[in-house]
Write a structure and sequence with these properties.
Blueprint (H helix, E strand, L loop, with lengths): L9 E5 L3 E4 L4 E4 L9 E3 L8 H25 L12 H8 L1 H8 L20 H13 L15 E3 L33 H10 L2 E3 L17 H37 L11 E12 L4 E9 L4 E6 L2 E5 L1 H8 L6 E10 L7 H16 L3 H34 L13 H6 L1 H13 L1 H9 L2 H7 L1 H21 L13 H7 L4 H12 L8 H16 L7 H29 L3 H19 L9 H24 L3 H24 L4 H15 L8 H15 L19 H15 L9
Antiparallel strand pairs: 1-11, 2-3, 4-7, 5-6, 7-8, 7-11, 8-9, 9-10
Length: 731
């Protein structure tokens, strides 16, 4: 079992409310009832409570075994209903007297509520009760036979109870005696033997039969004996049953209170939000209950309606089991963390501003640029939503409307492409603005068309020359502009020209009247390019490649910076992802990605450093340290080795893998603790042969690329640093 060493501020529980019905071939919603508390305690899952929890779980296991034994003795069943007894059950009640006389009450304790030897069994106290009632019933009166009576031969079972009279009113109990008949305690086998040898005949008509089963004769001595014994035995057995129930209840209560120890109530999490779904698997309605901490009430968020609610309403809508409405997500928050309130918002905002002022110039610039990018995303989203309104309105017009003159369908179809190209236009915004600024003379003398043409050709020539230059070892001009990347990889001319035209059509260039005029002309020219003039799938792939190239560059630089700081675990994640993505680019051409040998070198160094760290943690024989070391092996090193082996592995990588494997195999010949031997036996086969592993590469935390100049200066600083010049700080 895994134990938590740290806990998040918010715990989210996703409830599985859907399953796939194989017979129907469609999903179905699960409406089973699930109750959940307002407060849960996570102490029982913490590493510090491991020994205490293990002891309590052992106690619970023993208590459950005791309850199982007690339950088997009790063997609960539904109450006995004497009105529905058939002749066979009545016979069983009659024969209980001989059973009690021969076996005694102690031998019956294991069959309290299912007593008997046949398939029909009943509660023992009820059987004793009905034997007393039978013995106390008024004896049947004997009537003299009349000459007209007809003698009828009856089967044996007919003497027990006429079916038509079983539900009539019970006769009052008496203790009077009648004529001598067989003793109450006579053996039923004797009677059965006699009945087999001679048919039983009746001299009485059915109208003269007694309304209820009753002894034909009973003496006072027999009545007193039966009552004394059976009542005492019944009381004793009822007390035994009650004692069993009390033991079961006591053990159950002990189990329920096992985790109420104050030591296990130190980390409370309070229910903060409940997400509810009403309907079936294919359709329905959603709403949420959220706890308002300052007002101490539940609020119901249902579409645009927000109303006060209660815990009772939340239970009714969330537990499930009754209707087709139930919760599918629960969110708990750490109750010991300070809760946000409107009163403290002002103070926190002031404190945040003070902290922002204390940041370095580089971080301030990064935050400002990130905020600016977010504002751009919001504007693009709002523009996209506004474009959807006329499209929805046009779909309701008549079918005779001519859509051939409208450029909107082609624009909408390539929206994903334009997002990437627009992002690349934003990256080159300052260079495009400078190109527009250089056209002041052409704009004043020849107009906006001439200015756009001059700026377009000047920028095209500048970027083409930049792509042809031989770069220094610590610089990469592809990071400066998307067209440099396109030129070096020989992209089609139509892709290059459209990309450059989109940069002049960027709405972020509205600095002055000249920029706005050039932007509008460029936008008009873009609309003139139809689907026949441009393969948008090809255009999209080129921009996707450049976007991936920049991401690989950022991840490479981040990994190298983390490596220089000694953060090998974080660095390896970035370097592995950079290598895998870069390999996909290099398959399309040698200039599509970055230099592969640099990534491989520092990936190899990180693996060796982490392997040494994991081995040192393993050798401490401390539970926490060993777990951490094995985790590094299982989550980082073994998956990375698997990825390296599956690719074209180099000799250096192969040598590094052998070094790591030999290090762990050396423990096999040493005298190490038993727990270390178990851990080694679990992961060593995976280290030696990871071919059966299914590796899912997790992308590291996303880092947005900076502007081209910041990324270029960062690239130069890192490359100079790893080449041994000096540790350069990014300015």
């Amino acid at each position: 079992m895994c134990w938590f060493t740290k806990l998040p501020p918010v715990l989210t529980f996703e409830l599985s409310r859907f399953e796939f019905n194989q017979s129907l071939g469609q999903p179905e919603k699960i409406h089973n009832k699930l109750e959940f508390p307002q407060i849960i305690y996570i102490d029982r899952y913490m590493y510090r409570s491991k020994e205490l929890i293990r002891n309590k779980r052992e106690c619970i296991r023993k208590l459950k075994e005791e309850i199982k034994v007690l339950q088997q003795k009790l063997d609960r069943n539904e109450p006995f209903n004497r009105l529905s007894m058939d002749n066979r059950s009545l016979s069983a009640s009659l024969t209980i007297q001989t059973d009690l006389a021969s076996k005694g009450p102690l031998s019956l304790l294991l069959r309290y509520v299912k007593y008997g030897s046949g398939p029909a069994r009943f509660p023992l106290p009820d059987m004793l009760k009905y034997v007393i009632e039978f013995a106390s019933t008024k004896p049947a009166s004997e009537s003299s036979p009349s000459p007209s009576d007809t003698r009828v031969t009856l089967p044996l079972s007919s003497v027990h109870s006429p079916v038509s009279d079983l539900t009539s009113k019970e006769s009052t109990s008496t203790e009077s005696s009648s004529q001598d008949v067989e003793s109450t305690f006579s053996s039923p086998e004797d009677s059965l033997h006699k009945s087999k040898s001679k048919p039983l005949t009746s001299s009485r008509s059915s109208m003269e039969m007694p309304a209820h089963p009753a002894p034909r004769t009973v003496t006072d001595e027999e009545i007193n004996f039966v009552k004394t014994c059976l009542q005492r035995w019944r009381s004793e057995i009822e007390q035994d049953i009650q004692d069993l129930k009390n033991c079961i209840a006591s053990s159950t209560q002990t189990i329920e209170q096992m985790y109420c120890d104050p030591l296990l109530r130190q980390v409370p999490y309070r229910l903060h939000a409940v997400l509810v779904h009403e309907g079936q698997a294919n359709a329905g309605h959603y709403w949420a209950y959220i706890y308002n901490q300052p007002r101490q009430i539940w609020l119901k968020y249902n579409d645009i309606s927000v109303t006060e609610s209660s815990w009772e309403e939340l239970e009714r809508d969330s537990y499930g089991g009754l209707r087709n409405v139930s919760a599918y997500c629960l969110m708990y928050i750490n109750d010991k963390l300070p809760h946000f309130s409107a009163e403290t918002a002002t103070n926190e905002s002031d404190q945040m501003l003070e902290e922002l002022e204390a940041l370095s110039v580089e971080l301030k610039h990064y935050i400002q640029e990130d905020n600016w990018r977010f504002e751009q995303e919001v504007e693009e989203w709002e523009e996209e939503q506004s474009c959807k309104i006329p499209q929805m309105q046009s779909s309701t017009t008549s079918t005779s409307q001519d859509f051939s003159t409208s450029p909107e369908p082609s624009v909408a179809s390539c929206h994903g492409v334009r997002c990437l190209s627009s992002e690349h236009a934003v990256i080159a915004k300052e260079q495009t603005a400078q190109a527009i600024a250089n056209t002041a003379h052409a704009y004043e003398n020849s107009g906006v068309e001439a200015a756009l043409s001059e700026a377009f050709h000047e920028e095209y020539s500048r970027l083409y020359q930049l792509a042809k230059e031989t770069p220094a070892s610590h610089s990469d001009p592809r990071l400066q502009h998307v067209l440099v990347y396109f030129f070096q990889n020989e992209a089609p001319k139509r892709v290059v020209e459209r990309t450059l035209l989109e940069q002049f059509a960027d709405k972020n260039l509205s600095y002055d009247e000249r920029s706005i005029s050039i932007m509008k002309v460029a936008q008009a020219k873009l609309k003139e390019i139809g689907p026949d003039d441009m393969n948008m799938d090809e255009y999209k792939k080129w921009h996707e490649d450049y976007s991936l190239f920049r991401k690989v560059s950022v991840y490479l630089l981040t990994g190298l910076e983390l490596y220089q700081k000694g953060k090998y675990q974080e660095a390896l994640s970035y370097l592995v992802y950079a290598y895998q993505s870069n390999a996909a680019l290099l398959m399309k051409g040698p200039r599509r990605g970055v230099k592969e040998s640099v990534i491989a070198l520092y990936r190899r160094k990180c693996l060796l450093e982490l392997n040494a760290k994991a081995a040192s943690l393993f050798e401490t024989n401390d539970d926490h340290s060993v777990t951490e070391g094995i985790s590094v092996m299982n989550e980082l090193i073994i998956p990375c080795i698997h990825l390296i082996i599956n690719n074209d592995i180099s000799k250096d990588d192969l040598d590094a893998i052998e070094v790591m494997r030999n290090h762990w195999c050396s423990y096999l010949g040493q005298d190490i603790a038993e727990n270390l031997q178990l851990c080694l036996g679990e992961f060593l086969p995976r280290l030696l042969d990871p071919s059966a592993e299914i590796i899912v590469l997790k992308e590291p935390p996303t880092i947005r690329p900076n502007s081209p100049y910041d990324l270029c200066s960062r690239f130069a600083a890192v490359m100079e640093s790893i080449q041994g010049v000096s540790t350069v700080a990014v300015k």
